Amino acid sequence: AEVVAMLRLIADPTAGAAAMRVLTGSRWRLGARDLAALWQRARALDGGVPVADACSPESIASAADPDADTVCLADAIADPGAAEAYSAAGYQRITALAAELSALRAHLGHPLGDLVAEVRRVLGIDCEVRAAAGVGAGWAGTEHLDAFADVVAAYAERTDAATGPADGSTATSVTGLLAYLDVAESVENGLAPAPLAVARDRVQVLTVHSAKGLEWQVVAVAHLSGGTFPSTASKSTWLTDAGELPPLLRGDRAAAGALGIPVMDTSDVTNRKQLSDKISEHRRRLEQRRIDEERRLLYVAITRAEDTLLVSGHHWAVTGIKPRGPSDFLCEIKAVIDDSAAAGDPCGTVEHWAPPPADGELNPLRDNVIEAAWPPDPLAERRNDVERGAALVAQALRAGATETGIDVDGWAADVDALLAERARLVQPPPLALPGQLSVSSLVGLARDPAGTAQRLRHRLPSRPEPHALLGNAFHAWVQKFYGAECLFDLGDLPGAADSDVGDSAELAALQRAFTESPWATRTPVAVEVPFEMPIGDTLVRGRIDAVFADPDGGATVVDWKTGEPPHGPEAMRQAAVQLAVYRSAWAALAGVPESSVRTAFYYVRAGATVIPDELPSDAEVADLLSDPGGVGRVGV
Fold first, then answer.
1. Same domain for 282 and 239
2. How far apart are the C-alpha atoms of 127 and 386, rounded to whole Å?
Protein backbone atom coordinates (compact mmCIF):
# COMPACT_ATOMS: atom_id res chain seq x y z
CA ALA A 1 0.00 0.00 0.00
CA GLU A 2 2.88 2.39 0.76
CA VAL A 3 4.42 1.76 -2.67
CA VAL A 4 1.10 2.36 -4.45
CA ALA A 5 0.41 5.52 -2.43
CA MET A 6 3.82 6.91 -3.35
CA LEU A 7 3.25 6.05 -7.02
CA ARG A 8 -0.07 7.92 -6.91
CA LEU A 9 1.51 10.96 -5.32
CA ILE A 10 4.33 10.95 -7.88
CA ALA A 11 2.02 10.65 -10.88
CA ASP A 12 -0.81 12.83 -9.54
CA PRO A 13 0.08 15.63 -7.08
CA THR A 14 -3.64 16.21 -6.46
CA ALA A 15 -4.10 12.73 -4.96
CA GLY A 16 -5.08 13.87 -1.48
CA ALA A 17 -5.76 10.41 -0.04
CA ALA A 18 -2.35 9.19 -1.18
CA ALA A 19 -0.69 12.28 0.29
CA MET A 20 -2.38 11.68 3.65
CA ARG A 21 -1.30 8.04 3.66
CA VAL A 22 2.29 8.97 2.91
CA LEU A 23 2.37 11.78 5.48
CA THR A 24 0.82 9.73 8.29
CA GLY A 25 2.44 6.41 7.40
CA SER A 26 5.14 4.65 9.35
CA ARG A 27 7.92 6.40 7.40
CA TRP A 28 7.05 10.07 8.09
CA ARG A 29 4.49 9.85 10.93
CA LEU A 30 3.41 13.47 10.71
CA GLY A 31 1.36 14.47 13.76
CA ALA A 32 -2.01 16.18 13.90
CA ARG A 33 -0.60 19.65 14.63
CA ASP A 34 1.85 19.52 11.73
CA LEU A 35 -0.89 18.18 9.45
CA ALA A 36 -3.12 21.10 10.39
CA ALA A 37 -0.30 23.57 9.70
CA LEU A 38 0.41 21.92 6.35
CA TRP A 39 -3.26 22.13 5.51
CA GLN A 40 -3.31 25.82 6.36
CA ARG A 41 -0.33 26.31 4.07
CA ALA A 42 -2.11 24.46 1.25
CA ARG A 43 -5.13 26.75 1.63
CA ALA A 44 -2.91 29.81 1.59
CA LEU A 45 -1.15 28.66 -1.59
CA ASP A 46 -4.55 28.05 -3.15
CA GLY A 47 -5.54 31.62 -2.43
CA GLY A 48 -7.99 30.72 0.31
CA VAL A 49 -8.38 32.57 3.57
CA PRO A 50 -7.61 30.42 6.63
CA VAL A 51 -10.58 29.96 8.93
CA ALA A 52 -10.81 28.64 12.43
CA ASP A 53 -12.47 25.32 11.62
CA ALA A 54 -10.56 24.67 8.40
CA CYS A 55 -8.02 22.58 10.27
CA SER A 56 -10.43 20.59 12.40
CA PRO A 57 -10.02 16.80 12.22
CA GLU A 58 -13.36 16.50 10.42
CA SER A 59 -12.45 18.97 7.68
CA ILE A 60 -9.05 17.40 7.13
CA ALA A 61 -10.55 13.90 6.95
CA SER A 62 -13.22 14.99 4.46
CA ALA A 63 -10.66 16.77 2.32
CA ALA A 64 -8.56 13.60 2.17
CA ASP A 65 -11.42 11.75 0.48
CA PRO A 66 -10.40 10.66 -3.05
CA ASP A 67 -13.44 12.42 -4.54
CA ALA A 68 -12.95 15.69 -2.66
CA ASP A 69 -12.33 18.79 -4.78
CA THR A 70 -9.94 20.61 -2.49
CA VAL A 71 -6.58 22.29 -2.36
CA CYS A 72 -3.46 20.31 -3.13
CA LEU A 73 -1.40 19.04 -0.22
CA ALA A 74 1.47 18.28 -2.60
CA ASP A 75 1.89 22.03 -3.21
CA ALA A 76 2.28 22.61 0.51
CA ILE A 77 4.77 19.74 0.77
CA ALA A 78 6.88 21.33 -1.97
CA ASP A 79 6.56 24.80 -0.38
CA PRO A 80 5.77 24.38 3.33
CA GLY A 81 6.41 28.01 4.21
CA ALA A 82 7.89 29.20 7.49
CA ALA A 83 9.51 26.56 9.69
CA GLU A 84 8.01 28.17 12.79
CA ALA A 85 4.56 26.92 11.82
CA TYR A 86 5.63 23.32 12.41
CA SER A 87 7.42 21.28 15.01
CA ALA A 88 11.14 20.89 14.39
CA ALA A 89 10.80 17.19 13.53
CA GLY A 90 7.69 17.81 11.42
CA TYR A 91 9.32 20.51 9.30
CA GLN A 92 12.37 18.32 8.76
CA ARG A 93 10.20 15.42 7.63
CA ILE A 94 8.14 17.58 5.26
CA THR A 95 11.21 19.02 3.54
CA ALA A 96 12.80 15.56 3.30
CA LEU A 97 9.61 14.20 1.72
CA ALA A 98 9.57 17.09 -0.76
CA ALA A 99 13.12 16.27 -1.86
CA GLU A 100 12.20 12.59 -2.10
CA LEU A 101 9.16 13.29 -4.29
CA SER A 102 11.18 15.56 -6.56
CA ALA A 103 13.83 12.88 -7.01
CA LEU A 104 11.27 10.17 -7.72
CA ARG A 105 9.39 12.30 -10.26
CA ALA A 106 12.67 12.56 -12.16
CA HIS A 107 12.35 8.79 -12.71
CA LEU A 108 8.98 9.05 -14.49
CA GLY A 109 10.83 8.74 -17.79
CA HIS A 110 12.27 5.37 -16.80
CA PRO A 111 10.67 1.98 -17.53
CA LEU A 112 7.76 1.20 -15.26
CA GLY A 113 9.47 -1.68 -13.50
CA ASP A 114 12.52 0.47 -12.78
CA LEU A 115 10.32 3.23 -11.37
CA VAL A 116 8.62 0.83 -8.96
CA ALA A 117 11.98 -0.62 -7.94
CA GLU A 118 13.28 2.90 -7.26
CA VAL A 119 10.23 3.68 -5.11
CA ARG A 120 10.88 0.52 -3.11
CA ARG A 121 14.53 1.46 -2.70
CA VAL A 122 13.80 5.02 -1.61
CA LEU A 123 11.12 3.93 0.85
CA GLY A 124 13.49 1.31 2.24
CA ILE A 125 10.55 -1.01 2.51
CA ASP A 126 12.52 -4.11 1.51
CA CYS A 127 14.95 -3.55 4.35
CA GLU A 128 12.08 -3.00 6.76
CA VAL A 129 10.24 -6.22 5.96
CA ARG A 130 13.43 -8.27 6.00
CA ALA A 131 14.43 -6.78 9.30
CA ALA A 132 10.99 -7.61 10.69
CA ALA A 133 11.37 -11.19 9.44
CA GLY A 134 14.20 -11.78 11.89
CA VAL A 135 17.70 -13.16 11.68
CA GLY A 136 18.08 -16.25 9.51
CA ALA A 137 14.98 -15.57 7.40
CA GLY A 138 17.13 -14.80 4.36
CA TRP A 139 15.09 -13.13 1.62
CA ALA A 140 11.80 -13.97 3.29
CA GLY A 141 9.36 -11.15 3.91
CA THR A 142 9.31 -9.57 0.47
CA GLU A 143 6.97 -12.12 -1.14
CA HIS A 144 4.09 -9.66 -1.56
CA LEU A 145 6.41 -6.91 -2.81
CA ASP A 146 7.92 -9.29 -5.33
CA ALA A 147 4.46 -10.44 -6.42
CA PHE A 148 3.50 -6.80 -6.95
CA ALA A 149 6.66 -6.29 -9.02
CA ASP A 150 5.59 -9.26 -11.16
CA VAL A 151 2.16 -7.66 -11.68
CA VAL A 152 3.83 -4.41 -12.75
CA ALA A 153 6.16 -6.25 -15.14
CA ALA A 154 3.25 -8.18 -16.68
CA TYR A 155 1.23 -4.97 -17.08
CA ALA A 156 4.16 -3.19 -18.72
CA GLU A 157 4.70 -6.13 -21.07
CA ARG A 158 1.06 -6.17 -22.13
CA THR A 159 0.90 -2.43 -22.71
CA ASP A 160 4.15 -2.50 -24.67
CA ALA A 161 2.83 -5.34 -26.80
CA ALA A 162 -0.42 -3.48 -27.43
CA THR A 163 1.00 -0.02 -28.12
CA GLY A 164 4.48 -0.83 -29.39
CA PRO A 165 7.87 -0.36 -27.74
CA ALA A 166 8.17 2.20 -24.99
CA ASP A 167 9.11 5.67 -26.21
CA GLY A 168 11.06 6.54 -23.07
CA SER A 169 8.15 8.07 -21.12
CA THR A 170 6.18 6.05 -18.61
CA ALA A 171 3.97 8.76 -17.12
CA THR A 172 0.99 7.39 -19.04
CA SER A 173 1.93 3.85 -18.02
CA VAL A 174 1.94 4.86 -14.35
CA THR A 175 -1.53 6.35 -14.73
CA GLY A 176 -2.71 3.24 -16.55
CA LEU A 177 -1.19 0.98 -13.90
CA LEU A 178 -2.96 2.88 -11.13
CA ALA A 179 -6.25 2.65 -13.03
CA TYR A 180 -5.65 -1.08 -13.46
CA LEU A 181 -5.08 -1.45 -9.72
CA ASP A 182 -8.29 0.49 -9.01
CA VAL A 183 -10.27 -1.87 -11.24
CA ALA A 184 -8.68 -4.90 -9.58
CA GLU A 185 -9.68 -3.50 -6.19
CA SER A 186 -13.29 -2.81 -7.14
CA VAL A 187 -13.95 -5.85 -9.34
CA GLU A 188 -11.70 -8.58 -7.95
CA ASN A 189 -11.26 -7.40 -4.35
CA GLY A 190 -7.63 -6.54 -4.99
CA LEU A 191 -4.66 -8.38 -6.43
CA ALA A 192 -4.06 -11.99 -5.53
CA PRO A 193 -1.65 -12.24 -2.60
CA ALA A 194 1.68 -13.96 -2.98
CA PRO A 195 1.89 -17.62 -1.96
CA LEU A 196 2.56 -17.90 1.75
CA ALA A 197 5.35 -19.88 3.36
CA VAL A 198 5.15 -21.41 6.81
CA ALA A 199 7.29 -19.48 9.31
CA ARG A 200 8.18 -21.44 12.43
CA ASP A 201 9.51 -18.45 14.36
CA ARG A 202 6.43 -16.21 14.44
CA VAL A 203 2.65 -16.09 14.69
CA GLN A 204 0.97 -15.88 11.28
CA VAL A 205 -2.55 -14.47 11.00
CA LEU A 206 -4.26 -15.35 7.72
CA THR A 207 -7.52 -16.44 6.16
CA VAL A 208 -8.52 -20.06 5.78
CA HIS A 209 -8.37 -19.79 1.99
CA SER A 210 -4.77 -18.58 2.03
CA ALA A 211 -3.81 -21.39 4.44
CA LYS A 212 -4.75 -24.16 2.01
CA GLY A 213 -1.93 -26.62 1.48
CA LEU A 214 0.08 -25.39 4.49
CA GLU A 215 0.52 -26.88 7.96
CA TRP A 216 1.69 -25.58 11.34
CA GLN A 217 2.48 -27.27 14.63
CA VAL A 218 -0.19 -25.18 16.37
CA VAL A 219 -3.28 -23.74 14.68
CA ALA A 220 -5.92 -21.56 16.35
CA VAL A 221 -9.33 -21.19 14.67
CA ALA A 222 -11.23 -18.31 16.24
CA HIS A 223 -14.70 -16.78 15.82
CA LEU A 224 -16.69 -20.03 15.82
CA SER A 225 -19.61 -17.97 17.05
CA GLY A 226 -23.22 -17.72 16.01
CA GLY A 227 -23.63 -15.68 12.85
CA THR A 228 -19.89 -15.54 12.22
CA PHE A 229 -18.62 -19.02 11.30
CA PRO A 230 -20.82 -20.22 9.77
CA SER A 231 -22.33 -16.92 8.76
CA THR A 232 -26.08 -16.46 8.97
CA ALA A 233 -26.07 -13.81 6.26
CA SER A 234 -27.52 -15.42 3.17
CA LYS A 235 -25.66 -14.72 -0.02
CA SER A 236 -27.49 -13.17 -2.93
CA THR A 237 -28.83 -15.69 -5.42
CA TRP A 238 -29.80 -15.60 -9.06
CA LEU A 239 -33.44 -15.34 -7.98
CA THR A 240 -32.94 -11.81 -6.66
CA ASP A 241 -29.66 -10.62 -8.18
CA ALA A 242 -29.35 -10.18 -11.94
CA GLY A 243 -25.58 -10.31 -11.56
CA GLU A 244 -25.72 -13.97 -10.50
CA LEU A 245 -25.59 -16.60 -13.25
CA PRO A 246 -28.54 -19.05 -13.20
CA PRO A 247 -27.42 -22.56 -12.15
CA LEU A 248 -28.59 -24.07 -15.42
CA LEU A 249 -25.95 -22.01 -17.24
CA ARG A 250 -23.11 -22.76 -14.82
CA GLY A 251 -20.43 -25.34 -15.41
CA ASP A 252 -20.47 -26.31 -11.73
CA ARG A 253 -24.18 -27.09 -11.59
CA ALA A 254 -25.35 -30.18 -9.74
CA ALA A 255 -25.73 -32.20 -12.95
CA ALA A 256 -21.98 -31.84 -13.51
CA GLY A 257 -20.93 -33.03 -10.04
CA ALA A 258 -22.22 -34.14 -6.65
CA LEU A 259 -21.19 -30.85 -5.05
CA GLY A 260 -22.55 -28.62 -7.77
CA ILE A 261 -24.98 -25.72 -7.63
CA PRO A 262 -28.57 -27.02 -7.23
CA VAL A 263 -30.72 -26.62 -10.33
CA MET A 264 -34.42 -25.75 -10.01
CA ASP A 265 -36.53 -28.14 -12.08
CA THR A 266 -39.85 -26.57 -13.10
CA SER A 267 -40.79 -29.15 -15.72
CA ASP A 268 -43.69 -30.46 -13.60
CA VAL A 269 -44.99 -27.06 -12.43
CA THR A 270 -48.59 -26.39 -13.47
CA ASN A 271 -49.72 -23.62 -11.11
CA ARG A 272 -48.44 -20.73 -9.06
CA LYS A 273 -48.41 -22.60 -5.74
CA GLN A 274 -46.23 -25.33 -7.17
CA LEU A 275 -43.86 -22.71 -8.53
CA SER A 276 -43.73 -20.98 -5.15
CA ASP A 277 -42.98 -24.30 -3.44
CA LYS A 278 -40.25 -25.03 -5.99
CA ILE A 279 -38.66 -21.63 -5.39
CA SER A 280 -38.77 -22.11 -1.61
CA GLU A 281 -37.18 -25.54 -1.87
CA HIS A 282 -34.57 -24.20 -4.27
CA ARG A 283 -33.72 -21.40 -1.84
CA ARG A 284 -33.36 -23.97 0.94
CA ARG A 285 -31.01 -26.09 -1.17
CA LEU A 286 -28.92 -23.05 -2.09
CA GLU A 287 -28.67 -22.10 1.58
CA GLN A 288 -27.72 -25.65 2.53
CA ARG A 289 -25.02 -25.64 -0.10
CA ARG A 290 -23.68 -22.36 1.32
CA ILE A 291 -23.47 -23.92 4.78
CA ASP A 292 -21.84 -27.03 3.33
CA GLU A 293 -19.23 -24.83 1.68
CA GLU A 294 -18.46 -23.20 5.04
CA ARG A 295 -18.25 -26.66 6.62
CA ARG A 296 -15.68 -27.65 4.01
CA LEU A 297 -13.85 -24.43 4.80
CA LEU A 298 -13.83 -25.40 8.48
CA TYR A 299 -12.39 -28.77 7.50
CA VAL A 300 -9.56 -27.00 5.72
CA ALA A 301 -8.93 -24.86 8.81
CA ILE A 302 -8.83 -27.65 11.38
CA THR A 303 -6.67 -29.91 9.21
CA ARG A 304 -3.89 -27.31 9.03
CA ALA A 305 -2.68 -28.38 12.50
CA GLU A 306 0.14 -30.91 12.69
CA ASP A 307 0.03 -31.29 16.48
CA THR A 308 -2.27 -28.90 18.37
CA LEU A 309 -5.61 -27.42 17.31
CA LEU A 310 -7.26 -24.62 19.29
CA VAL A 311 -10.84 -23.56 18.54
CA SER A 312 -12.83 -20.82 20.23
CA GLY A 313 -15.93 -18.69 20.04
CA HIS A 314 -17.40 -15.79 21.98
CA HIS A 315 -20.68 -14.59 23.37
CA TRP A 316 -20.02 -10.87 23.00
CA ALA A 317 -18.59 -9.03 20.01
CA VAL A 318 -17.24 -5.48 20.08
CA THR A 319 -20.55 -4.31 18.63
CA GLY A 320 -24.08 -5.60 19.00
CA ILE A 321 -26.55 -5.79 21.86
CA LYS A 322 -27.32 -9.52 21.73
CA PRO A 323 -24.90 -12.33 22.62
CA ARG A 324 -23.75 -14.44 19.71
CA GLY A 325 -23.16 -17.72 21.52
CA PRO A 326 -21.29 -20.71 20.10
CA SER A 327 -21.88 -21.61 16.48
CA ASP A 328 -23.21 -24.98 15.37
CA PHE A 329 -19.69 -25.91 14.29
CA LEU A 330 -18.24 -25.24 17.75
CA CYS A 331 -21.08 -27.15 19.41
CA GLU A 332 -20.45 -30.11 17.11
CA ILE A 333 -16.73 -30.10 17.95
CA LYS A 334 -17.57 -29.98 21.67
CA ALA A 335 -19.99 -32.88 21.26
CA VAL A 336 -17.28 -34.98 19.59
CA ILE A 337 -14.85 -34.24 22.44
CA ASP A 338 -17.48 -35.04 25.09
CA ASP A 339 -18.45 -38.31 23.39
CA SER A 340 -14.84 -39.42 23.04
CA ALA A 341 -14.18 -38.62 26.70
CA ALA A 342 -17.26 -40.59 27.77
CA ALA A 343 -16.01 -43.55 25.71
CA GLY A 344 -12.67 -43.47 27.53
CA ASP A 345 -10.64 -42.29 24.53
CA PRO A 346 -10.64 -38.46 24.67
CA CYS A 347 -9.62 -36.72 21.46
CA GLY A 348 -9.40 -33.26 23.01
CA THR A 349 -10.12 -31.08 26.00
CA VAL A 350 -12.77 -28.43 26.60
CA GLU A 351 -10.67 -25.88 28.45
CA HIS A 352 -13.51 -23.47 29.14
CA TRP A 353 -17.17 -23.31 28.14
CA ALA A 354 -18.72 -20.04 29.23
CA PRO A 355 -22.38 -20.09 30.30
CA PRO A 356 -24.75 -17.96 28.22
CA PRO A 357 -25.35 -14.40 29.46
CA ALA A 358 -28.51 -13.74 31.41
CA ASP A 359 -31.53 -12.33 29.64
CA GLY A 360 -31.26 -8.58 29.30
CA GLU A 361 -27.56 -8.50 30.17
CA LEU A 362 -25.75 -5.62 28.48
CA ASN A 363 -22.76 -6.07 26.21
CA PRO A 364 -19.76 -5.29 28.44
CA LEU A 365 -17.56 -4.53 25.42
CA ARG A 366 -19.66 -1.66 24.08
CA ASP A 367 -18.54 0.73 26.82
CA ASN A 368 -14.85 -0.11 26.47
CA VAL A 369 -12.78 2.91 25.50
CA ILE A 370 -10.02 1.94 23.10
CA GLU A 371 -7.03 4.26 23.23
CA ALA A 372 -4.15 4.36 20.79
CA ALA A 373 -1.28 6.69 19.98
CA TRP A 374 -1.45 8.46 16.64
CA PRO A 375 0.41 8.41 14.43
CA PRO A 376 1.45 4.90 15.49
CA ASP A 377 5.12 4.19 16.08
CA PRO A 378 6.07 1.02 14.17
CA LEU A 379 9.07 0.47 16.46
CA ALA A 380 7.17 1.13 19.71
CA GLU A 381 9.35 0.32 22.71
CA ARG A 382 12.17 -0.87 20.45
CA ARG A 383 12.77 2.60 19.00
CA ASN A 384 15.72 3.56 21.21
CA ASP A 385 17.51 0.26 20.59
CA VAL A 386 16.87 0.37 16.84
CA GLU A 387 18.02 3.98 16.50
CA ARG A 388 21.16 3.23 18.51
CA GLY A 389 21.91 0.24 16.27
CA ALA A 390 21.26 2.31 13.13
CA ALA A 391 23.71 4.96 14.34
CA LEU A 392 26.37 2.30 14.87
CA VAL A 393 25.82 0.91 11.37
CA ALA A 394 26.01 4.39 9.82
CA GLN A 395 29.21 5.09 11.73
CA ALA A 396 30.74 1.82 10.54
CA LEU A 397 29.77 2.57 6.94
CA ARG A 398 31.35 6.02 7.09
CA ALA A 399 34.53 4.55 8.55
CA GLY A 400 34.63 1.88 5.85
CA ALA A 401 34.17 4.44 3.08
CA THR A 402 37.04 6.51 4.48
CA GLU A 403 39.37 3.54 4.67
CA THR A 404 38.68 2.03 1.25
CA GLY A 405 38.23 5.22 -0.72
CA ILE A 406 36.32 5.29 -4.02
CA ASP A 407 35.09 1.91 -5.27
CA VAL A 408 36.06 2.22 -8.93
CA ASP A 409 35.52 -1.47 -9.61
CA GLY A 410 32.02 -1.26 -8.17
CA TRP A 411 31.21 1.69 -10.41
CA ALA A 412 32.47 -0.21 -13.44
CA ALA A 413 30.28 -3.20 -12.55
CA ASP A 414 27.26 -0.90 -12.20
CA VAL A 415 27.96 0.64 -15.61
CA ASP A 416 28.24 -2.81 -17.20
CA ALA A 417 24.96 -3.87 -15.60
CA LEU A 418 23.17 -0.72 -16.78
CA LEU A 419 24.49 -1.10 -20.33
CA ALA A 420 23.40 -4.74 -20.40
CA GLU A 421 19.96 -3.74 -19.14
CA ARG A 422 19.61 -1.09 -21.84
CA ALA A 423 20.60 -3.64 -24.48
CA ARG A 424 17.92 -6.02 -23.23
CA LEU A 425 15.26 -3.31 -23.33
CA VAL A 426 15.80 -2.55 -27.02
CA GLN A 427 15.42 -6.22 -27.97
CA PRO A 428 11.98 -7.78 -28.37
CA PRO A 429 10.97 -10.06 -25.51
CA PRO A 430 11.16 -13.82 -26.09
CA LEU A 431 7.96 -15.39 -27.34
CA ALA A 432 7.10 -17.69 -24.44
CA LEU A 433 4.22 -20.09 -25.15
CA PRO A 434 1.46 -21.17 -22.76
CA GLY A 435 1.93 -24.41 -20.84
CA GLN A 436 -1.02 -26.06 -22.66
CA LEU A 437 -1.71 -26.00 -26.39
CA SER A 438 -4.09 -27.63 -28.84
CA VAL A 439 -2.96 -29.53 -31.90
CA SER A 440 -4.39 -26.80 -34.12
CA SER A 441 -2.06 -24.34 -32.37
CA LEU A 442 0.90 -26.54 -33.35
CA VAL A 443 -0.27 -26.44 -36.95
CA GLY A 444 -0.49 -22.66 -36.67
CA LEU A 445 3.09 -22.54 -35.35
CA ALA A 446 4.22 -24.49 -38.40
CA ARG A 447 2.42 -22.09 -40.77
CA ASP A 448 3.09 -18.76 -39.03
CA PRO A 449 5.44 -19.19 -36.06
CA ALA A 450 5.76 -15.56 -34.94
CA GLY A 451 2.13 -14.60 -35.55
CA THR A 452 0.71 -17.68 -33.86
CA ALA A 453 3.04 -17.31 -30.87
CA GLN A 454 1.97 -13.68 -30.48
CA ARG A 455 -1.73 -14.62 -30.60
CA LEU A 456 -1.21 -17.41 -28.08
CA ARG A 457 0.53 -15.05 -25.66
CA HIS A 458 -2.23 -12.43 -25.95
CA ARG A 459 -5.46 -14.35 -26.38
CA LEU A 460 -8.49 -12.28 -27.30
CA PRO A 461 -12.08 -13.44 -27.79
CA SER A 462 -13.06 -13.77 -31.43
CA ARG A 463 -16.35 -14.23 -33.23
CA PRO A 464 -16.90 -17.84 -34.44
CA GLU A 465 -16.25 -18.02 -38.17
CA PRO A 466 -18.81 -19.68 -40.45
CA HIS A 467 -16.29 -22.14 -41.91
CA ALA A 468 -15.25 -23.28 -38.43
CA LEU A 469 -18.89 -23.80 -37.46
CA LEU A 470 -19.39 -25.82 -40.64
CA GLY A 471 -16.40 -28.00 -39.80
CA ASN A 472 -17.68 -28.60 -36.28
CA ALA A 473 -21.16 -29.47 -37.52
CA PHE A 474 -19.76 -31.93 -40.06
CA HIS A 475 -17.54 -33.65 -37.52
CA ALA A 476 -20.48 -33.99 -35.14
CA TRP A 477 -22.51 -35.56 -37.95
CA VAL A 478 -19.74 -38.06 -38.78
CA GLN A 479 -19.56 -38.96 -35.13
CA LYS A 480 -23.28 -39.82 -35.13
CA PHE A 481 -22.89 -41.57 -38.50
CA TYR A 482 -20.56 -44.08 -36.88
CA GLY A 483 -22.87 -44.40 -33.87
CA ALA A 484 -20.53 -42.71 -31.37
CA GLU A 485 -21.50 -40.22 -28.69
CA CYS A 486 -19.15 -37.97 -26.74
CA LEU A 487 -18.84 -34.44 -25.40
CA PHE A 488 -16.79 -31.82 -27.20
CA ASP A 489 -14.31 -29.57 -25.45
CA LEU A 490 -14.54 -26.10 -26.94
CA GLY A 491 -10.75 -25.77 -27.34
CA ASP A 492 -10.42 -29.22 -28.97
CA LEU A 493 -13.37 -29.25 -31.35
CA PRO A 494 -12.58 -31.14 -34.55
CA GLY A 495 -12.12 -28.89 -37.51
CA ALA A 496 -10.32 -26.25 -35.50
CA ALA A 497 -7.29 -26.72 -37.72
CA ASP A 498 -9.32 -26.23 -40.89
CA SER A 499 -8.62 -22.78 -42.26
CA ASP A 500 -10.22 -22.74 -45.67
CA VAL A 501 -13.61 -24.45 -45.59
CA GLY A 502 -16.57 -23.10 -47.46
CA ASP A 503 -20.01 -21.82 -46.53
CA SER A 504 -22.08 -23.62 -43.89
CA ALA A 505 -24.82 -24.17 -46.47
CA GLU A 506 -22.64 -26.90 -47.96
CA LEU A 507 -23.14 -29.19 -44.95
CA ALA A 508 -25.66 -31.38 -46.78
CA ALA A 509 -23.32 -31.69 -49.76
CA LEU A 510 -20.47 -32.68 -47.47
CA GLN A 511 -22.65 -35.34 -45.87
CA ARG A 512 -23.58 -36.82 -49.24
CA ALA A 513 -19.95 -36.80 -50.34
CA PHE A 514 -18.87 -38.62 -47.21
CA THR A 515 -21.50 -41.37 -47.56
CA GLU A 516 -20.11 -42.05 -51.05
CA SER A 517 -16.51 -42.28 -49.81
CA PRO A 518 -14.68 -45.57 -49.13
CA TRP A 519 -14.34 -44.58 -45.47
CA ALA A 520 -18.12 -44.66 -45.00
CA THR A 521 -18.17 -48.43 -45.65
CA ARG A 522 -15.48 -49.17 -43.04
CA THR A 523 -16.03 -49.57 -39.32
CA PRO A 524 -13.64 -47.60 -37.11
CA VAL A 525 -12.19 -49.07 -33.94
CA ALA A 526 -12.30 -45.67 -32.28
CA VAL A 527 -14.00 -42.33 -32.97
CA GLU A 528 -13.34 -38.91 -31.46
CA VAL A 529 -10.52 -40.04 -29.17
CA PRO A 530 -9.38 -37.26 -26.81
CA PHE A 531 -5.77 -37.24 -25.69
CA GLU A 532 -3.21 -35.27 -23.74
CA MET A 533 0.50 -35.80 -24.11
CA PRO A 534 3.58 -33.84 -23.08
CA ILE A 535 5.91 -32.50 -25.73
CA GLY A 536 8.86 -31.03 -23.91
CA ASP A 537 7.45 -28.76 -21.20
CA THR A 538 4.13 -28.25 -23.03
CA LEU A 539 0.96 -30.31 -22.59
CA VAL A 540 -0.63 -30.83 -26.02
CA ARG A 541 -4.32 -31.67 -26.22
CA GLY A 542 -6.30 -32.90 -29.18
CA ARG A 543 -8.96 -35.26 -30.48
CA ILE A 544 -8.40 -37.97 -33.09
CA ASP A 545 -11.29 -38.12 -35.58
CA ALA A 546 -11.21 -41.85 -36.37
CA VAL A 547 -8.94 -44.90 -36.19
CA PHE A 548 -9.32 -47.90 -38.53
CA ALA A 549 -7.75 -51.35 -38.18
CA ASP A 550 -5.50 -52.50 -41.03
CA PRO A 551 -5.26 -56.12 -42.26
CA ASP A 552 -1.60 -56.37 -41.21
CA GLY A 553 -2.45 -55.63 -37.57
CA GLY A 554 -1.59 -51.95 -37.77
CA ALA A 555 -3.91 -48.97 -37.63
CA THR A 556 -4.70 -45.93 -39.75
CA VAL A 557 -5.51 -42.62 -38.09
CA VAL A 558 -7.74 -40.47 -40.32
CA ASP A 559 -8.51 -36.78 -39.92
CA TRP A 560 -11.58 -35.44 -41.75
CA LYS A 561 -11.05 -32.18 -43.61
CA THR A 562 -13.88 -30.03 -44.93
CA GLY A 563 -11.58 -27.65 -46.78
CA GLU A 564 -9.42 -27.95 -49.85
CA PRO A 565 -6.23 -30.05 -49.99
CA PRO A 566 -3.02 -28.09 -49.38
CA HIS A 567 -1.35 -26.61 -52.42
CA GLY A 568 2.36 -27.31 -52.71
CA PRO A 569 4.82 -29.41 -50.73
CA GLU A 570 5.43 -26.66 -48.16
CA ALA A 571 1.75 -26.45 -47.21
CA MET A 572 1.58 -30.25 -47.01
CA ARG A 573 4.59 -30.39 -44.68
CA GLN A 574 2.96 -27.83 -42.41
CA ALA A 575 -0.37 -29.70 -42.32
CA ALA A 576 1.47 -32.97 -41.64
CA VAL A 577 2.36 -31.68 -38.16
CA GLN A 578 -1.19 -32.58 -37.11
CA LEU A 579 -0.83 -36.18 -38.27
CA ALA A 580 2.58 -36.49 -36.64
CA VAL A 581 1.07 -35.61 -33.27
CA TYR A 582 -1.91 -37.95 -33.86
CA ARG A 583 0.46 -40.82 -34.73
CA SER A 584 2.43 -40.36 -31.51
CA ALA A 585 -0.75 -39.99 -29.46
CA TRP A 586 -2.43 -43.14 -30.80
CA ALA A 587 0.77 -45.18 -30.45
CA ALA A 588 0.96 -44.14 -26.80
CA LEU A 589 -2.75 -44.79 -26.15
CA ALA A 590 -2.76 -48.20 -27.85
CA GLY A 591 0.68 -49.22 -26.58
CA VAL A 592 2.00 -49.98 -30.07
CA PRO A 593 5.11 -48.77 -31.93
CA GLU A 594 4.69 -45.68 -34.08
CA SER A 595 5.86 -47.66 -37.10
CA SER A 596 2.58 -49.62 -37.01
CA VAL A 597 0.45 -46.46 -37.12
CA ARG A 598 -0.40 -44.99 -40.51
CA THR A 599 -2.02 -41.57 -40.98
CA ALA A 600 -4.09 -39.84 -43.64
CA PHE A 601 -6.20 -36.79 -44.35
CA TYR A 602 -9.54 -37.28 -46.05
CA TYR A 603 -10.69 -34.14 -47.87
CA VAL A 604 -14.44 -34.65 -48.11
CA ARG A 605 -15.22 -31.93 -50.63
CA ALA A 606 -12.58 -33.21 -53.06
CA GLY A 607 -13.22 -36.89 -52.24
CA ALA A 608 -9.48 -37.41 -51.87
CA THR A 609 -7.45 -39.34 -49.30
CA VAL A 610 -4.11 -37.58 -48.91
CA ILE A 611 -1.17 -39.37 -47.29
CA PRO A 612 1.89 -37.16 -46.73
CA ASP A 613 5.14 -38.58 -48.05
CA GLU A 614 6.84 -37.95 -44.71
CA LEU A 615 5.74 -36.81 -41.27
CA PRO A 616 7.81 -34.50 -39.07
CA SER A 617 9.82 -36.32 -36.43
CA ASP A 618 9.17 -35.91 -32.72
CA ALA A 619 12.23 -33.67 -32.50
CA GLU A 620 10.93 -31.41 -35.29
CA VAL A 621 7.56 -31.07 -33.58
CA ALA A 622 9.29 -30.25 -30.30
CA ASP A 623 11.32 -27.57 -32.11
CA LEU A 624 8.07 -25.73 -32.89
CA LEU A 625 7.55 -25.26 -29.15
CA SER A 626 11.12 -24.48 -28.20
CA ASP A 627 11.55 -22.07 -31.12
CA PRO A 628 8.25 -20.17 -31.50
CA GLY A 629 10.04 -17.45 -33.44
CA GLY A 630 10.36 -19.80 -36.36
CA VAL A 631 14.10 -20.47 -36.57
CA GLY A 632 13.53 -24.20 -36.33
CA ARG A 633 10.42 -24.21 -38.46
CA VAL A 634 9.33 -27.61 -39.75
CA GLY A 635 10.19 -28.17 -43.39
CA VAL A 636 12.61 -25.24 -43.64
1. yes
2. 13
